[in-house]
Write a structure and sequence with these properties.
alpha/beta; 195 residues; globular; binds thymidine-5'-diphosphate; Rossmann fold
């Protein structure tokens, strides 16, 4: 069985918290697992974070190229080695994020997904989508953060969410992001048939 589990959602949906909670639970049960995120902490990922903080400008085409090259680093340096060791890999954002966030007039979400699929990146076993309406996500972001990323405004979050809905496979598991941390953790374990 492939053990590759991906968490997706718009900014403010709480996917980083949920993926950390799932990871900690695996650790507490001595289940071999790794938690990674994209953008990575490698050179490509650091450059992407500069872009996300508004420190450098990248047009949609440049963003797309850099997110895909960062994903190559993510796959070859993080994901694949851990899967080869038989570990469960939990990943906070994957190519569905690129499809949802880098879509532009030139490239539809589906075009971007297809570009990623052509790279032969590993296919996730489960995709969890933290579903939240953009207004609630925006409130959380304004309440929690000192720094606001370039994508964090209501109009952008709304179109990003619509992009996600247009490309997520039917097998994606929608979680209600307004639930408590405990309930969400239980929902994930139920879906993984772990109790
Ligand atoms: P996020 O995952 O929310 O992490 P943090 O807690 O560091 O804010 O932020 C990553 C940002 O990167 C988010 O705004 C979405 C964006 N992103 C893309 O635009 N395309 C991608 O392919 C990925 C992986 C992320």
């Amino acid at each position: 069985m492939s053990k590759f589990i991906v968490f997706e959602g718009i900014d403010g949906s709480g996917k980083s918290t949920l993926s950390k909670n799932v990871f900690q639970l695996f650790v507490s049960r001595n289940i071999p697992a790794e938690l990674f995120r994209e953008p990575t902490n490698y050179e490509t990922g650091l450059r992407l974070r500069e872009f996300l903080q508004g420190k450098i400008h990248l047009n949609p085409e440049e963003q797309l190229k850099l997110f895909i090259s960062d994903r190559r680093a993510s796959v070859t340096r993080n994901i694949q080695p851990s899967l080869n060791q038989g570990k469960i890999v939990l990943l906070d954002r994957y190519y569905y994020s690129t499809a949802a966030y880098q879509a532009s007039e030139q490239n539809s979400p589906q075009d971007i997904l297809d570009l990623n699929l052509k790279e032969n990146f590993p296919i996730p076993y489960k995709i969890f989508f933290l579903n939240i309406n953009p207004e609630s996500a925006m409130k959380r972001i304004q309440f929690n953060r000192s720094e606001i990323d370039v994508f964090e405004n209501l109009e952008k979050l709304t179109s990003i969410r619509n992009n996600y809905l247009s490309i997520l496979p039917d097998s994606a598991i929608f979680l209600d992001a307004m639930k408590s941390e405990e309930e969400l953790l239980r929902d994930v374990l139920d879906s993984l048939e772990m109790h």
